[in-house]
């Protein structure tokens, strides 16, 4: 349907056939005048608003701001809904549905008369899922993130969503916090529109989007209730119309150099480990070579510059007032590819030139960082032949080299049943091991890797143990937690063979994770091992189990990797 030199939407709205009549006539029932249907870029506003996704609850307003900008620039905005993924309410995990939402986005964009797209994203998986879907179509695209909540305020101090949840829960279980105080903290933590205000996965994804060049400069850190977030949406509406006229597509922005920039910026901001699995999936859709080793090679040696929870003490609101991502990019200018194209039509260097830091407590200089060499580390060894990851900036230094006996939980139900058993053989030297929480095994790879510690250890003041799993961890969480072990236990990875009492060695400086069991013993265990039965026999979940890739390649569905483009070569009407 696409013709050289003409807008893609012309194949629908300017067609003299019955299909053109239908496209114009039926949409005119919304009151659109005839002049909107000719020579105007049609801009799709992909809205992940839902009352089931509280973090994105203000997106109806943002969509209206985008529409203003599109109309002002001479475009024709059409808003459409897609599956929304809310961390707070969805079970068993939003990660199970990331790829489904990406399919929704991809097919909605491709099947409709759109020339460009604005993605409204916020809560964790709405950002990677919509970007993945848009990448597979490859039209001009801008991301407008929803922004973080205002700082939580509880009894005279700032508290951070997620990060303080884990602390409060430990204190409650240890008897340090009362149930009444626990309930009071709920309202104090979430007191405005927006997503988590820690450097959790939602904020990490917003920073990733800015580092990739997919949003307007400075867009990552503006608080959700701040009027400047609305102005950003308006300006994005302006810019997407120009991008269509310039034919500036995702494939011109999402280059190998852009992905490398994102990895380095993520290290400096102390971003979530979830960044790894989402960036790998996005790269897979674009056909850009990216592998797990790149995250260690490019990011692990870089310092932590942003002093935000869970790796530091401040929150996203403070990060914005201090100068946001543009300051971080300028601090990293000797490491980044500053000439990479962005959605502005300019390079990152030009976009961020003159960025000023207004608070060095929040954004440190590269000469005096918050922590040295704090980026995500990639581990290898007989426990993780295809890799595993750990976030050193959120871990306990004294556990970064550790040897201890495994305390094994065969699945999440086993963990919940036994974790507070007074007779559980566990102490501060133990290594907690959780199986069955990988992409296929759970299914969906939930954020349970930061297992809560046993009550008897919490009561003794222990607040961290080495924890190992094939699952994920919330970006708001912290601890010496090894994640994304591949191959996962459900498909017969070595993790499936670990038994309580086995000695495990973690050596982060040397990037090693080793199960100290002789090879012949492991071979005998493997002979006796049987894969668990799939937890679904129909529908999307069964499709997911049959086709999901492992964590080290992004956990996308194998048949979704790559892109089909924007052409639709069959008509719906004669």
């Amino acid at each position: 349907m696409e013709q050289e030199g003409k807008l893609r939407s012309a194949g629908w709205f300017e067609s003299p056939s019955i299909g053109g009549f239908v496209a114009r006539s039926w949409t005119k029932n919304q009151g659109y005048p005839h002049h909107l249907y000719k020579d105007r870029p049609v801009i799709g506003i992909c809205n992940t608003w839902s009352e089931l996704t509280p973090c994105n609850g203000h997106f109806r307003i943002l969509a209206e701001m985008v529409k203003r900008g599109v109309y002002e620039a001479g475009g024709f905005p059409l808003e459409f809904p897609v599956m929304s993924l809310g961390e707070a309410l969805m079970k068993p995990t939003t990660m199970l549905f990331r790829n489904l939402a990406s399919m929704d986005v991809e097919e909605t964009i491709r099947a409709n008369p759109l020339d460009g797209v604005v993605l409204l994203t916020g809560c964790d998986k709405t950002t990677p899922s919509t970007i993945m879907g848009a990448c597979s179509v490859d039209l001009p695209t801008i991301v407008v993130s929803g922004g973080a909540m205002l700082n939580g305020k509880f009894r005279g101090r700032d508290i951070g969503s997620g990060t303080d949840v884990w602390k409060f829960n430990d204190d409650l279980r240890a008897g340090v916090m009362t149930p009444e105080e626990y309930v009071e903290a709920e309202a104090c933590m979430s007191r405005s529109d927006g997503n988590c205000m820690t450097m959790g996965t939602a904020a990490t994804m917003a920073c990733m989007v800015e580092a990739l060049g997919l949003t307007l400069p400075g867009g990552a850190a503006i608080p959700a209730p701040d009027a400047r977030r609305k102005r950003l949406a308006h300006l994005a509406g302006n810019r997407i119309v120009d991008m269509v006229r310039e034919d500036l597509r995702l494939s011109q922005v999402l280059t190998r150099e852009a992905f490398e920039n994102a990895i380095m910026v993520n290290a400096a901001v102390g971003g979530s480990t979830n960044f790894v699995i989402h960036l790998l999936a996005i790269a897979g859709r674009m056909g850009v070579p990216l592998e797990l080793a790149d995250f260690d090679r490019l990011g692990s040696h870089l310092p932590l510059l942003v002093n935000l929870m869970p790796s530091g003490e401040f929150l996203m609101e403070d990060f914005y007032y201090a100068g946001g991502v543009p300051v971080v990019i300028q601090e990293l200018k000797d490491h980044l590819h500053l000439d990479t194209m962005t959605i502005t039509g300019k390079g990152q260097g030009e976009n961020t030139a003159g960025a000023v830091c207004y608070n060095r407590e929040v954004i440190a200089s590269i000469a005096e960082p918050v922590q040295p060499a704090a980026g995500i580390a990639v581990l290898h060894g007989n426990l993780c032949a295809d890799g595993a990851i750990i976030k050193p900036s959120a871990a306990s230094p004294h556990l970064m080299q550790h040897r201890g006996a495994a305390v094994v939980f065969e699945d999440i139900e086993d963990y919940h049943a036994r974790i507070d058993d007074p007779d559980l053989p566990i102490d501060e030297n133990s290594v907690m091991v959780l199986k069955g929480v990988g992409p296929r095994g759970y299914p969906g790879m939930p954020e349970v890797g930061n297992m809560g510690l046993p009550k008897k250890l919490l009561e003794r003041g222990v607040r961290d143990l080495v924890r190992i799993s094939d699952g994920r961890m919330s970006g708001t969480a912290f601890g010496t937690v090894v994640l994304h072990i591949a191959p996962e236990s459900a498909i017969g990875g070595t993790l499936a063979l670990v038994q309580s009492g086995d000695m495990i060695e973690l050596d982060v400086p040397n990037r090693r994770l080793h199960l100290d069991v002789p090879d012949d013993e492991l071979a005998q265990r493997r002979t006796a091992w049987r894969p668990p039965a799939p937890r679904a026999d129909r529908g999307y979940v069964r499709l997911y189990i049959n086709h999901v890739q492992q964590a080290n390649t992004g956990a996308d569905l194998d048949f979704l990797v790559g892109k089909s483009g924007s052409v639709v070569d069959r008509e719906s009407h004669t």
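DSSP finds 20 helices and 14 strands in the chain. Residues 227-246 form the longest helix (20 residues).
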